[in-house]
Amino acid sequence: MKKIIFLFALLISTLTMSAQQNSEKPYTYKQYGNTYMVSIKNHTDLAESIMTFCKDMNITAGSITGIGAINEATLRCYDPKSKKYDDKTFKEQMEVANLTGNVSEMNGETYIHLHCVLGKTDYTALAGHLLSARLNGAGEIVITTFDSPMERYHDEETGLNMYKF
Ligand code: FE
């Protein structure tokens, strides 16, 4: 009898721990074959949450698309002459009209590359390389995984991290 009570207590504590872990994650998801439908939790950082998801799922190669709503975003634009980025933060409610990107690896680390088009409330749009964005509404992301890793290296000529094929 004692053994049964012990096993029951162990089961309850395991279930509680796993529920706590899931509630701490910045996303929920459902898998459809090699594709994940990911719902990012409100008020989290969109780019960071996608990175966390890819790391948790050990995704080393894939494509990313998405839509959602945010109230702050930092975009960047690359200057090929200076080989430097110009970053700019926009603090207003915007629709993520399109998020497009990919996941790969660089030096053994997960590498996310995201671009986006953001729709403002006056129906004009901003676009650029997405560095970070605070979700304020839904964040619906589709990640399709590839069956072998995709690696990058730093290219001195362009100053960019290119695919190593
Ligand atoms: Fe980019």
Short note summarizing the structure:
It contains 2 helices and 9 strands; from the N terminus they run H-E-E-H-E-E-E-E-E-E-E. By secondary structure, the protein is an alpha+beta fold.
What does this structure look like?
About 5% of the residues have low confidence. The protein has a single domain, classed as 60s Ribosomal Protein L30, Chain: A (2-Layer Sandwich), CATH 3.30.1330. With 165 residues, it is of the alpha+beta class. Strands 1, 2, 3, 4, 5, 6 and 7 form a 7-stranded antiparallel beta sheet that branches. A two-stranded antiparallel sheet has the order 8-9. The radius of gyration is 19 Å and the shape is flat. The site of fe (iii) ion (FE) has 3 residues, from strand 6.
List keywords for this structure.
flat, 60s Ribosomal Protein L30, Chain: A, 2 helices, 165 residues, binds fe (iii) ion, alpha+beta
Strand proportion, as a percent range, falls in: over 45%
Total number of beta strands: 9
CATH homolog superfamily:
Hypothetical protein, similar to alpha- acetolactate decarboxylase, domain 2
User: Which percent bin holds the helix content?
Assistant: 10-25%
